[in-house]
Amino acid sequence: MSKQNHDTMDEQNFRNKIDFLDGAERRRLLPPEEILNILPIEKSHTILDAGAGSGYLTVPAAKLVNGAVYALDMDARMLDVIDEKARAENITNIKLVPGSIDDIPLPEESADIVLASLILHEVRPLSRVLQQIRRVLKEDGHFLCLEYEKEEGTVPGPPMHIRIHSSEMEQELANAGFHAVQKVYPGKSIYIITAIKTAVQVR
Predict the structure, then answer these.
(1) Where is the Methyltransferase type domain (predicted)?
(2) Which of 116-120, 151-155, 157-161 has the lowest mean pLDDT?
(3) Phi, psi (rounded to 5 degrees) for 200
(4) Tell me: the pLDDT tens digits for 173-188?
(5) Complete DSSP assignment for 34-103
(6) Which of 100, 199, 118, 113 has the alpha carbon at shortest distance from 156?
(7) Which of 13, 26, 67, 118 sits CB 3.0–4.6 Å from 46 for a disulfide?
(8) pLDDT band at residue 19 using 50, 70 and 90 as cut-offs
(9) What is the CATH number of domain 30-197?
(10) How far is CA 188 from CA 23, 145, 191, in A?
(11) Mean pLDDT, rounded, for 111-126
(12) What is the dihedral sign for C-alpha 148, 153, 159, 163?
């Protein structure tokens, strides 16, 4: 395959991913405003969207606060998509952060809220990522984790062997120094766990 054909295919794959992330079916099953409404978001809050993708949660979150909303993603093209959306809606409080969720390039206790939507099943080890999220969260800050349930016959998504069962996620959160406060199922086999950073981390 020539480089030109490879680049064309890569661009098409990227566009297909954007279409999935921003698709009408996803918005019907997982309305971003309803997801964010689970959290006690205040106007003064600073938010980190870890693994922001196309900005599915970043953009609506930025409309809820006056503080910064950090969009963290490894793919510069995703950050470009978010930037385009922000410019189109004249949103000025989104800060684009190139980087990895397992080594978040933000200071300690720099966010009131951290969001991780359909990203944690892709990272290993999970414990390191949760420690990074805890590090950048302020004490008593809230973390929202949205993931695929690990059950047979569930919605299409990542392979079963890389999914994280909700009970396993709750244990991982507890080990990392979080107190889970709520677990809901907004769609078939999709769960949301919200947790608070506790003062003492379990070792």
Answers:
(1) 48-145
(2) 151-155
(3) -120, 130
(4) 999 999 999 999 987 7
(5) HHHTTS---TT--EEEET-TTTTTHHHHHTT-SS-EEEEES-HHHHHHHHHHHHHTT---EEEEES-TTS
(6) 118
(7) 67
(8) low
(9) 3.40.50.150
(10) 17, 16, 8
(11) 95
(12) positive
pLDDT at residue 98 greater than cutoff 90: yes
Q: Tell me how crowded residue 44 is: count the other CB atoms within 10 A of its CB.
A: 9
How many helices and strands, by DSSP H and E, does the chain display? 7, 7
Domain segments of the chain as ranges: 30-197
Strand partners, 147: 191
- Residue showing tokens 């390039």: 105
Predicted pLDDT of residue 15: 72
Closest CA to 126 of 165, 71, 72: 165
Report yes or no: 117 and 57 within 8 Å, Cβ to Cβ: yes
